[in-house]
Amino acid sequence: MTLARDMDIFLLRLGASRKPRWMLSLRLFLLTPGFQFVFWLRLQRKVGAIPLAGPVLRRILWYGTRVCFASDVDTQARLGSGLYMPHPFGIVIGAGVRIGENVAILQRVTLGRAGLDHVYPVIGNGVEIGAGASILGAIHIGDGARIGANSVVLKDVPAGAIAVGAPARVILRAATG
Description:
Layout: H1 2-14, H2 21-31, H3 33-48, H4 54-69, E1 72-73, E2 78-79, E3 92-93, E4 98-99, E5 104-105, E6 110-112, E7 122-123, E8 128-129, E9 134-136, E10 140-141, E11 146-147, E12 152-153, E13 162-164, E14 169-171
Helix pairs in contact: 1-3, 2-3, 3-4
């Protein structure tokens, strides 16, 4: 289940392991805005699948989530499991964006189209996107890549690379082993 994977990632990143699982889960639902945001995004998708009333209810949930968190994640964006958004404020994700699994997105991130083209970025698995970063256009961010804070990414970033600056330049990580 996608929400369970999201919960596992939040608990892992919070370093919470000594308390009983039910207590940690309660903490996530009641006291962790990032998890609450991800929960509402997942709920929107489930509600949207209800025949007839689903699309209307989904739109209502989308609007409430948008107002509550000052973020706009389009209902058509595809979000992989293990999504980690610890500070879910000011995030904008466009309709055609596809996000892989175990991705971390910090506050004020924009993932969307560039210009009039209706082509959106594809984010690979295990990507970390720093605060204030913008990833725009028909580009691909490879698995395990890292995007620096306030970077403006307009070109593909290969797997395992780091992109920093505005416009972003790609730094390939040295192989370790």
